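Memo to structure team: turn this sequence into structure tokens by end of day. - J.P.
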Amino acid sequence: MRQAVWLLDAAREVVAQGRPLIWTDDAETPTNGPVYEELTASGRALLIAPLPNRGLQPAHLDQIEVFVASAAASADSEGVDALRAARRLLGGPGD
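Reply from structure team:
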């Protein structure tokens, strides 16, 4: 897999700032190896590489919702607002 340098640089910056990162891409998202380990070591990054011909599936959205809920639980009200917005985007209630 050939990763776009700017995507990886942006992901590293987000993680370095201690912010949660969700990266979904069928071609560029690392799924194993040293870059994957680097980005996910802190537990603040979720990397999903869906199949190109299928895209994100309900199970991926479940993973994202759990990740956002976990990040929101450890954050301030901004995180709670992000969780509510994610739930609305996923078709659920925002409360």
